[in-house]
Amino acid sequence: MKPAVKTIEMKELTLPPELEVVNMTKQFGQLIALDNVSLTLKPGTFHALLGENGAGKSTLVKCVMGFYKPTSGEVRFNQQVQAIDSPRDAQKHGIGMVYQHFTSVPAMTVAENLVLCRYESAALIDWKAEYEVLNAFMATAPFKLPLSVPVAQLAAGEKQKLEILKQLYLKSKILILDEPTSVLTPGEADEVLGLIREEVVAGHLSVLLISHKFREVTAFVDEITILRKGKFAGSGRVKDLTIADMAEMMMGEKRIPQTVQKTLHPDPAPVLQIQAIHANKDNGLEAVSGVDLTVNSGEIVGIAGISGNGQRELVEVLAGQRTATDGQVLVNGEVYRASRTEMFQHRVFVLPEEPLKNACVPHMSVAENLALRTFDRSPQAKGWMLLFKPIREAAQSLIKTFNIKTPSPETPISNLSGGNVQRTVLARELSSDHINLLIAANPCFGLDFAAVDYIHSEILEARNRGVAVLLVSEDLDELLKLSDRILVISEGKFAYESPIADADFASIGRSMAGH
Amino acid sequence: MATEALGWWGVPLGIMAGMLRGSAPFLFVSLGECLTEKSGKVNLGLEGTLLTGAMSAYAVSYLSEKTVGSAIAPWLGVLVAGLAGMVLGFIHAWLSQQPKVNDVAVGIAMIIFGSGIAFFFGKPFIQPSAPQLPAFELGAWSNIPQIQSALKVSPLLMVGVLIAPLMAWFFKSTRWGLFIRAVGDSPDAALAMGISIKKVRMLCIIAGSFLAGIGGAYLSLYYPGSWTERISSGQGLMAVALVIFARWNPIQCLWASLLFGGAQSIGPALQAVGIEGGYYLFNASPYILTLLIMIITCSPKKTLTGAPGALGTLT
Questions:
Q1: ipTM for this model
Q2: Given an 8 Å threshold on Cβ–Cβ distance, is A105 in contact with B181?
Q3: Angle (deg, nearest 10), helices A388-402 and A418-430
Q4: Does domain A2-105+171-251 have CATH number 3.40.50.1220?
Q5: Domain-embedded: residue B29
Q6: Which residues of B touch A117 (CB under 8 A)?
Q7: pLDDT tens readout for residues A164-173
Q8: Are strands A223-228 and A231-237 parallel, antiparallel or unpaired?
Q9: DSSP character for B130?
Q10: What's the DSSP call for residue A58?
Q11: What is d(CA B223, CA A248) in angstroms, rounded to the nearest whole number?
Q12: Interface of A with B (CB under 8 A)
């Protein structure tokens, strides 16, 4: 009798607490990132938080972890309200988070990182005793890592496993995973999630998984909560929902592409041809795994996709910022390597994302930035000398035409607001008399509605003039409004392609989520 | 007579004497810089700290001779030199942690400031002679004066030699050591663990300057043993190269300091046996060594193994 009671008690002791987020709101100035969101994480369950980019998932978990202080709302453990002021606080309550970026110290070994992450460790470290504890821990851990290897020498997948191991080592009861499989191969992802699920089923852990991959959600998760644009958009048990239901909740109501004025071009000629391009990310993993695409004159081809699926690397290859590891790009039938002469000859212009970083020199003036395409030709240069008067005059005229709000043409461009930086880049790229090919990546990110409408109308007008436009965007509304053809990029490949008239919203949503 | 008896043995003896005699300033300053750089900040101002330490040690030793006697006075001087170093270290730490401030600029400013303070307040102490630090006569067994003077070792050097392995152990086996390495290698990871980067760096810079001040005290209270404006032969600046050469490892800092100390005395040692030619070249050997090290160890393609990740960045 007594032993039986004791085992039940011990089991209840090790069961994680129930975590409730009640009516949480978080405002950053004007931006409402989270609007009255509630969530319940039952003990010993695997719960997924789904949503598009910008839906508020990261904000929600950062509020729970104590990184942000919510504007209103509360967190409850087993029905009792708790204030969590810092990640240290969160750790005291047994919540641990595995981030998307690695939080290990590269020069230190796995063992040192594990010992370091404990908040209360002794001032003096007895390595012999620590190694015993670590080895015992490794024996029971779901994945093994070599203890005396510096973290810098681990592969990305192993680094991610280390992040998860850290939380298990800290005996976290509630684990929050922020897109943990983004650097893992599908096999590793299955292994990691499977092992974590075993811990959940055994009652040692509750897990809140942030993901946008339906495949993982349906295979490992018990319940889901969906956020859309900061608001609660639905929840339920995975058993009761189909993927179509989930996709619809993520995207919102089915939307019909808005019609805009588009002129017909009877004889489209291929301007941009991408043939079997492969490219790697900065960390060496493959980002673009063989894409083929043709963009004809007078059409807008839209590429949709959740951030991190290779579209950034693809645009960098086209813009010349990244060398492709395989394949080639043809413009007007000739091999295109994004050299300055080729850009000028083929009239290729680019509106990259993060314009201040990718398309401007921050401490140079607006006038100089406007001249970056033309400064080495007459009338702005004579031989090897720059003529500043023509540069200034050209800048003044562009500032007027494109309505760039700047104190003067000599202001450093980094002083301008985001919208005006984008206008400057637009002015530079779209003001040329003859444009052949325009590549735009997230051109309206972070801009107000007036700027967005303006940029959309400029892109459309270019298309109507006969320019071939490749528009890469994470905003599905924008793509549905502007594109003639829409593709979806997922894990480095195109997963969906159709003319806009036949675009099936549900399929697009599914392909974006990698299903 | 004795010199001829030694003959060519005078050269290695001279070099060894140089090691034992001249490496302590290198040792203290490089250990201090090693501690500072492990936390991710460069302190170029240690040359100024060295000079201020030297001046204040000499001044305090001279002024307190009457009150505490000539045995304790130099040690009091050493202590005050360390404290003076801490004050300069605090200024450097506070300035260089302000947003958008460049470490190198602050360091150079601190060199000028430290030397200025030392020379200005040190003017009255150029003439008088202050009690010196004692030395252990390890060469008492010999009756050759050169060997006797070569094997004179200052207790400060022995303290320094003990600090090196202590620091290595500190970085490996204490929580604070791990914090410092985390802050210096990956400030983001340290932040995620709730470590206060500013606090750790400030403490490291101040502690590093304390050691550099003591290095300066060695110069004025042992060898060369007087206070003039020429007392430093650039040990403070060379120590920065030394730390890189030693790959940020305190024990290797010890060996490197001995090497530099020995290099300093190649010139005089050769001169003592009559080799006059190339005098200036030999005297320049520590500096040439520094240059060679910098050229060999710096590569545009990859970072050095052991370099703290946050060194040289604005984080």
A1: 0.80
A2: yes
A3: 110
A4: no
A5: yes
A6: 193
A7: 888 888 888 8
A8: antiparallel
A9: P
A10: H
A11: 81
A12: 86-88, 99, 101-108, 112, 115-117, 119, 121-127
